[in-house]
Amino acid sequence: MASETDTEIDVQYGLDDRPPWPRSLLLALQHVAVMIVPATAVAYIVGGAVGLGDATAYIVQMVLLFSGLATVVQAYTVGPVGAKLPVVMGTSFTFVGAASTIGINYGLAAVFGAILVTGWLVEGLIGWQFERIRPFFPPLVTGLVVVIIGLYLVPAAMDNAAGGAGSAHYGAAYNVGLAALVLGIAVVLNLFTSGVTRLLSTLVAIAVGYVAAGVLTVTGVAPGLLSFDAVAAQPWFAVPNPGRFGFAFEPVPILTFAFLFLVSAMETVGDMSSVTAAEGRTPTNGEFRGGLFTDGLMSSLGGIFGAFPVTSFSQNAGIINFTGVMSRHVVGVAGVILAVLGLSPKIGALVTTIPSAVFGGAVLLMAGMVAASGARLITLDVTLDRRNMVILAVALGLGLGVATTPEALGGLPVAARTFFGEPVIVTALSALLLNTFVPGEESPLFG
Q1: Is residue 437 in a domain?
Q2: Which is nearest to 40 in space by CA: 318, 273, 182, 234?
Q3: Which family does it belong to (predicted)?
């Protein structure tokens, strides 16, 4: 096991450590519990927008299956594909808006056709040439991407903590109380206990919150908060069906998804940097290349079967920094669990009964940890002189500006709003351009 130094957190299990099987299983379940709701939420949102009805359950199943397979590939690799890092994969909210709009206007066949083409093409090309372009992504830039990813998750976490955006009981006292209970238990167990209790602090907190939600439901304080109706409606086993929604290759959807995979690549670079920050380092060229290959190739493969694109999950990077468990074998077990859930819609539906408030309390903590790990990357590896402070100020100011006040861009054309309305892109591009063209040690042109 690694120990704490000036440049790394207190790592309980290193990259290649294998915790005992019972502990590995519980640690893996912690990863699954934190990411399964947002991963499947993308399928529910898009399915609802395009009017899929019961067919949405199939997309949920495929999202879980390919999230699991991609996670296993990241942990163990298949040839050049995979990073051999504890990177948990899932469907990103980056693709929700485009998938919904294109699904309505062009049909889901155009969505999956675009995913099939652009996933391997865009991220495969970036991964292939990453060694050449890596000087353009120093810790100053990648650290800022990690920070904005974490901060960007906070509003969504708060929405979930309040009961879920659009919920009739949004902001109800019992929702806020559940979220506070989960957050408080996770913090107390992590800071004031040791051993397995600290390592499983997030999972224990979610379990306690789940039981509390059941009590509130049974006593009538919050009727319907915990419901198993969706579980009963699902079969125990379902076989993947390639090409179920067909494929169409339209220029506008393809260009749109090509842009979004660029966003996904930036997020993955940031998340991988957040993971290795636990060891006080940034990923190697080979790790970056393998991780980006997984993003693109597994997204295209999943699109054949009806899954939305998979990418690295920031909240799980937060768990690694929060618990100090960096073992890729734990994440590999989590991937197997997700794949099994993807073959059994009934079990997957059972896991997704976690109330939004319970999930929100956990993710609020994880989002903060992601942002903190990005800040740690910057403070460890970047000299905070006047030049770099200005770059930090501009990039974060613009990123948070479009995140908190998107209506400020209302007068721009739709394409421009789509591009400049992405906080991760605005932060990354502003940091990239300033860092490249302003003389300094971090600049690839003048350093």
Answers
A1: no
A2: 234
A3: Belongs to the nucleobase:cation symporter-2 (NCS2) (TC 2.A.40) family.
Residue reference for tokens 């502003």: 430
Which tokens hold the place of 294? Answer: 């997984």
Between CA 126 and CA 17 the distance in angstroms is 30
33's CB contacts (< 8 A; 6+ apart) are 202, 203, 206, 351, 354, 362
The answer to whether 17 touches 187, Cβ cutoff 8 Å, is: no
* pLDDT computed for residue 5 by the predictor: 45
Side chain identity at residue 389, one-letter code: M
First to last CA, the chain: 37
Structure confidence at residue 2 (pLDDT): 44
Neighbouring C-beta atoms of residue 438, cutoff 10 Å: 15
pLDDT digits (tens, 9 = 90+) for 351-382: 667 788 888 888 788 778 778 878 887 888 88
> Residues 391-428, buried b or exposed e (16+ Cβ, 10 A)?
bbeebbebbbebbeeeeebeeeeeeebbbbbbbbbbbb
Q: Any long-range contacts for 166-174 (C-beta under 8 Å, 24+ apart)?
A: 167/356, 169/222, 172/222, 174/216, 174/221, 174/222, 174/225, 174/357
State the pTM of this model. Answer: 0.74
- pLDDT surpassing 90 at residue 315: no
pLDDT, tens only, 106-134: 889 999 999 999 999 999 999 888 888 87
Which residue from 48, 133, 200 is spatially nearest to 444, judged by alpha carbons?
Answer: 133
Using CA atoms, how far residue 103 sits from 100, 256, 296, 397, in Å, is 5, 13, 21, 33
- pLDDT bucket at 345, cuts 50 / 70 / 90: confident
Max Cα–Cα distance, the chain, nearest Å: 66
In a domain, 81, yes or no: yes
Signed CA dihedral, 230, 231, 234, 237: sign only = positive
Query: How much is the pLDDT for 446?
Result: 82
Sign of torsion over alpha carbons 14, 17, 22, 26: positive
Whether 280 has a pLDDT exceeding 70, the answer reads yes
Report CA-CA distances (Å) from 161 to 49, 165, 170, 355: 23, 10, 9, 9
Range of the domain at 137: 21-382
Query: Phi and psi dihedrals of 18, rounded to 5?
Result: -120, 100
- Phi, psi at residue 90, to the nearest 5°? -165, 175
Q: What is the total count of domains within the chain?
A: 1
